[in-house]
Amino acid sequence: MNAKDVINHTFGHSDRVLKYYINDLEDAELQLVPLDGMNCIAWQLGHLISSERGMVEGIKPGSCPPLPAGFDENHGKNKGQTDNSANYLSKNEYIALIDAQREATKAVLESLSESDLDAPAPERMQRLCPTVGSVMLLVGNHALMHVGQFVAVRRKLNKPVVI
């Protein structure tokens, strides 16, 4: 197994876990804020999509599908606790965007050589990820940083344990 294999496995694991947690949620449930100061799942899904797109575009500009108008703004900082449901999409729309972005991300990863993965990351990302490979690994792990918050929503809604 090489670095690209590990990163691809991370993508798959992360995607499965995220989808397990949202599979049985309704659109309105994605907008529930379980505790003051937490962001709703809809915002977090948008943040994950927008962040992944930004990281991958930093590595290979022009490689990612466009996002709907206003998407980045509606999923930017300080927007996650809004009561304005017009800022959010349906679960199926988020899943379609997640899947389209992930396919673009996988295509970029496939296009990189092992030595490309060792190259310095784009400057704006180097504080967290010094190399292109570490950026791609963060892309794969990012959802796992958020799904713990999804559990709070699931508990509040008395949904079953999925993992």
TrEMBL record:
A UniProt-annotated Pfam family: DinB_2
Domain DinB-like: 17-149
Listed name of the protein: DinB-like domain-containing protein
Organism in which the protein naturally occurs: Singulisphaera acidiphila (strain ATCC BAA-1392 / DSM 18658 / VKM B-2454 / MOB10)
